[in-house]
Design goal:
408 residues; alpha/beta; seven-stranded mixed β-sheet; 37% helix; 14 strands
Length: 408
Amino acid sequence: MSDQLNEKMTKILDHMRAGGLIIVADSPQRESEGDMIGLAEKVTPETVNMMISKARGLLCVPMSKDYADRMQLAPIETGSNDTFGTAFTLSVDATETTTGISAFDRAKTIKKLADPSSKWDDFYHPGHVFPLVAKEGGVLERTGHTEASLDLARLAGVAPVGFICECIKKDGTMARRKDLKALAEGLGIPYLTIEELIEYRKGQENKDLDIEAFAQVDFPTKYGHFMLEGFRDKKHPDKEPTLLISKGKVKPGEPLLLRLHSECLTGDVFSSKRCDCGAQLAEALTKIEANGSGAVLYLRQEGRGIGLENKLRAYQLQDEGMNTVEANQHLGLPVDARRYNIAAEILRQKGISEIELMTNNPDKVDQLEGYGIKVVKRLPVEVGLTAENKRYLTTKKHEMNHILNEVD
């Protein structure tokens, strides 16, 4: 994370704690649209009026799941046509409001939604304010404005509730990035992108890492004889451990032959032909055995970080005609949510600063180097194009920038 971004975020969070609004633009790969965002705990009639008069979209109130559960705000089923999976609940008005629609009444409702003691009976149902339930992982789980507002509230140290409104131009069309920047400048408020917020969140996570080894065992396999070591996150002991499968010793001054492999139950365990994951893992272990030294870091990031349940939902959409990128986007999920900060920390603990990385994915190289691990060589892991995985690999090459010479 750059010093410039750190300084920018510090100013933004101070501005929001003081009750100010900001404009947040999402990715051009998603909608390339923007929302005006504020902290619900700091809402005023004036900021609500600014939103509805200058942003002009639907005013909503994103919140954490525990806040929504306490107020019994269950998500409404929106059906499969809701492309980005926005988790609306039944609309509400605070019981002390009158019409519920004025800026003053909506500010009262938003403030009540941010109150940690509020309950179901404090609201009329339905009403004029639309709560949303954000994904707990924030923008690292779903790259939407709902999650951005939750992250900003948590980073500001206030109640995990925001209020947001889509930005629409005077002619009624959606404001895009150039319009959003101009609007922010005209109103004198900060402008932020989802990508910047993701980068900042990753930087904050790195500061909070506390990884320790807890077991090392002899590990003979059909691919060769290795050592298996487990690493746990002391701050999140409920998370599955990261595994280091290694052979030989690290020689000073020599880069480590390494594969970063994200867990794929269907490919690694059941040898699914829909992907190339299981074959890549086998190829990496075979190469390490032949080399006499090297390692696989086995990362618990099923489905490129979206989890097994969402991966199966994405598979179902692929069976209906979508590719792997379109399926994730339809579910409102990142195309690739994987992060490699834990891998970099384990390598540092092992005294490893340089590696030869077995991967087809340039993002792994970029992330590791961003975390201070030098990738001196990238080694391809192309394990065969088949009728079953052709579309998957073609999508990875042309839409995710993977380097795959076996794909036309």
